[in-house]
């Protein structure tokens, strides 16, 4: 049996006994990067069982309001009362800046002949240079946001993609 088959079987087994999405057990929401090296799942990185937390993923984690829509739904329609912001080492968002990506897009538009200059110039792709500061900024953004419930426990973490260890970033 291949590794993928084994993983799929394990995943299916774990999910057969999972509670409904509205379960009171799912009070934790993890916001993390889309990087495929955070394995096997962001939930497992914290030692939590499969199906015990909601997960929102995007390029570079929170950074501005990209995950906010999901946070509001998880708190208002589901049961989330704790948010863990999980960055990781060796993130691709540390390898470029906005101007590099803007220039690349303008020189080679995704749809040939379609002018995208003004769209691209008003858009930030939210790269960063100081990872620890970025974790603190993301946590502060959520703590201070008027749409996030008062009393929500919000913490920041870094996952080491080489060792698989997880470290809490104190603010
Ligand atoms: Zn990343």
UniProtKB/TrEMBL annotation:
Positions with a binding annotation for Zn(2+): 33, 35, 88, 91
Reaction(s) catalysed by this chain's protein: hydrogencarbonate + H(+) = CO2 + H2O
SMART domains: Pro_CA
Cited SUPFAM superfamilies: beta-carbonic anhydrase, cab
Entry EC number(s): 4.2.1.1
Region (Disordered): 1-20
Domain of life: Eukaryota
Function: Reversible hydration of carbon dioxide.
Protein name: Carbonic anhydrase
